[in-house]
Design a protein that fits this description.
Blueprint: E1 7-16, E2 20-30, E3 35-39, H1 46-54, E4 62-71, E5 74-75, H2 81-86, E6 89-92, H3 104-110, H4 119-132, H5 134-137, H6 149-161, E7 167-171, H7 179-196, E8 199-204, H8 207-213, E9 216-221, E10 224-230, H9 231-236, H10 238-245
Parallel strand pairs: 3-8, 3-9, 6-7, 7-8
Antiparallel strand pairs: 1-2, 1-4, 4-5, 9-10
Helix pairs in contact: 3-6
Length: 267
Amino acid sequence: MSNTPVLAVNNIEAVYGGAILALRGVSLTVNKGEVVSLLGANGAGKTTTLKACSRLLGAERGEVTKGVIELNGEDISKLNAFDIVKQGVVQVLEGRHIFSHLNVEENLLTGSFIKNMSRAEVRRSLDYVYELFPRIKSRIKTPGGLCSGGEQQMIAVGRALMAKPSLILLDEPSMGLAPQFIEQIFEIVKRLNEEEGVSFLVSEQNAMVALRYATVGYVIENGRVVKRGSSKELLESTDVAEMYLGGGKDVSFDEVKYYHRRQPSFV
């Protein structure tokens, strides 16, 4: 079996508008069958990292100006977002971004178009998504815009699954969701990882939940990776506990080893 990572991000820098440096030498890897968490505050560079990997930065006047991103050992710098999806990498964007005027099933079907599947294959994929998310099965004909935030997140993940991905880039899945929906989403991540072998790179602010389901975690701050370790190591880390898990007494943010006071951000 090859030891080549599914995704390897090597010392990348990313710039918006040719002037604003958003990522400063970010490196990380996602091995086959791993769930990797990318942790950090709002504006730390998590979304930019994921969009660099999915080749969506160009839609926001951003570009990777240094470093290499490899998919299964191959440099993807010449590929566009369409090519990346065809290679099996799908991003679930922050904030869901489903089509509000389409009903639930129509939203899901949009994820299957790129694979040129037969009707029977599409039906099997739909049935699998409905098995994973029985809540949205009962709302097949409901316009996406009338679904709850949790249901919209289920639709977004289900739409990604319709493209038969080997790697899902999941951006802030817990944002704006009630706790019961957050647990449901991460339980589905666990199931897909264990039963289907889907690898995940999950961007999250909710470190407690993310690390509970991840294999490895990276902490990003001000566009730099400042800490890496197994989920267990990060959960036991005093610095991570102080900044993200509410641990410690009389925490002084000026004295935390790896972190600094947040600055207004553009990412």
